[in-house]
Amino acid sequence: MVSWTKLFDQLPSERATVQGHTLTITKTDKKDAGTYICTATNALGTSHAMTALIVNVLPQFTVKPPDKIERYHGQSVTLNCSAKGHPVPSITWTKCKGDIPEERSQVEGGQLKINSLTAEDSGTYICSARSELVHVETEVQLIVKTGKATLCHKRCLSTDT
């Protein structure tokens, strides 16, 4: 007879099945990670074997930039991107067909900020969330307009009644 147990925990009863000598856990989750013990018993005695289950959770974006963002020449832009997973994914930014201007940009915690925008900053920016096994990407199209931003003062908003 063969049985399976989880060290310091219980098997996920609704998702764990034992068929013959094999333990199968469906729809594995991070909480399923741990040490599992296989116990085999027959007329000659009992034997135990342990195995470790490591569960990796694919990166999933929790914050994505918009598909498209427009700014005017000289303005700044902040692009936000974050992801969850196990192990925790690292976030990087790249620019498709070009470089991110190092002297005018900062990347911190998944946030890309570019100051004093120029027309050359226009393009597609890619946020990548990387884990040990896989990476996922999302894109944002930055359009830098060369005209001046028009500000409307209070007098623009008044109506004659």
Distance N to C terminus:
91 Å
Q: CATH homologous superfamily of the largest domain?
A: Immunoglobulins
* Tally of individual domains: 2
How many DSSP-defined strands?
A: 14
Task: Please supply descriptive tags for the structure shown above.
Immunoglobulin-like; disordered C terminus; 4-stranded mixed beta sheet; 1 helix; 161 residues; single chain; 14 strands; mainly beta; 3-stranded antiparallel beta sheet; 53% strand
Q: If you had to describe this structure to a student in words, what would you say it looks like?
A:
The chain is mostly beta strands and 161 residues long. It folds into 2 domains: 2-55, Immunoglobulin-like; 58-145, Immunoglobulin-like, CATH 2.60.40.10. It has 1 helix and 14 strands. The protein has one helix spanning 154-157; strands spanning 2-6, 16-19, 22-25, 34-42, 45-53, 57-63, 68-72, 77-80, 82-86, 90-95, 105-108, 111-114, 123-130, 135-145. It has a 4-stranded mixed beta sheet with strand order 7-14-13-10, with no helix packed on it. A hairpin with a 2-residue loop joins strand 11 (105-108) and strand 12 (111-114). Residues 152-161 have low confidence and may be disordered.
In short:
The chain has 161 residues and is mainly β. Helix content is 2%, strand content 53%. It has one helix and 14 strands; from the N terminus they run ββββββββββββββα.
List the helices and strands and how they pair.
Elements: E1 2-6, E2 16-19, E3 22-25, E4 34-42, E5 45-53, E6 57-63, E7 68-72, E8 77-80, E9 82-86, E10 90-95, E11 105-108, E12 111-114, E13 123-130, E14 135-145, H1 154-157
Parallel strand pairs: 7-14
Antiparallel strand pairs: 1-4, 2-3, 4-5, 6-9, 8-12, 10-13, 11-12, 13-14
